[in-house]
Specification:
about 425 residues; Alpha-Beta Plaits; 3 domains; 19 strands; about 45% helix; about 25% strand
Length: about 425
Amino acid sequence: MSSSYLSIDPATLASQYTQIDRAAKDAALSEKYNLYSGQISAFNSLKTTMADFVTSLEDMQNDNSALVNQSAIDNETVLSVTTDSSAIAGTYDIFVEQLAQAHQIALSFDPNDALPTDGELSIDLSGDEFVVDLSTLGPGASLTDLASEINTHVDNTGVKATVMRSDSETFLVLTSEESGAANQISVGFTPGTDPAASNFTTAIASQHELTQAQDAIVQFGASSPVTIISSNNQLEDVIEGVTVDLRQAQEAGDSAVKLTVGQDLDQSEENIKSFTDQVNRLISSIKENSNLQNDPMAKSLMSQLKTAFQGTVEGKTLYSIGIEFDRFGNINIDSDRLQESLQTDPEQVAAMLTGDNGVMAQIIDSLTPYTSSYGIMSQKTETLRASLNLVIDQQERQNYIMEQRYNRYLSQFTQMQVTIAQLESSMSQF
């Protein structure tokens, strides 16, 4: 009879009975928990992907970088060229008559002579003058101290001071930070009581002009050239979409540099394909995610993305320029049609893709309400989070109820064990 008593484990029986009672509801709550958690994660990931995509499209719109031009020059020693998508195909003759230079002067001092302890050094750049009071430098100040005071002066509008040394002379070198004939430096000195002021007076009177302030002079054209004058050596607005960096002046009799601007068809096609691939990946991320594929909002997003590629854009269909859907619903590029469109009418292609009413603008407009901080996607995840929190509350309530039930079962089985033990004890007396 004792074996019957020992075989009863109230805790094990209570746990088993409780597990039977809770299994169905635990499974249901767990399924809901996994559902809402998976959807929250999926929508958060989708929101990040969409936001990055919108930023990418905005950058492409702002930079006009969907279409790419290329340039070629026959003398890279004289100049270099960069182009953007607004450049128009053409050929240009460029002769660099003169480079722009920054004004630079040097004041010579005997390295053994001390600076005066007072007096005012005035420095003028293009009519903007500032004054350095030498008395603020302190006794025993050097040209290096003076150069530092010039560079950090609150009224300095663009003069850089450095110190240059030789065996017998030390130079205070003043350089305009901006090139061009207008950026001329002039210096003056008003002496104080220190007799060493004569050093400054002499240095200014015998100053060396190391580099003359001058503008760049460039001739555009062959038979009847147009003269372009620039304060610097980068010409950004002379030819639309073309930036010319001047490197070296030419001599009389030198041949003009030949610049040819044309469409980079391969790179432009690659950029457009990169855009359509991003759209395909975004659509696939919805179609292939079990947490998104059946969601009405996610389906609406896919529909809006596809709609942007249908109908007409700027009076033409995207199909007409080589952008089309295949039988699987993916956006593909027909290289022949696209290249022909890029050659014959690149402005039309650019307007259809990156223009104010182009496909990229339409996609941005349709996605922005979803990706904004308080947009549709955020509201969706907040709703899912509320549902998840409700499930968590139900799980906690379920755990509490099951704990109470376990304790009741434990009490019942323990009492049963005691009763059986008493019965076995009574029966053992007969």
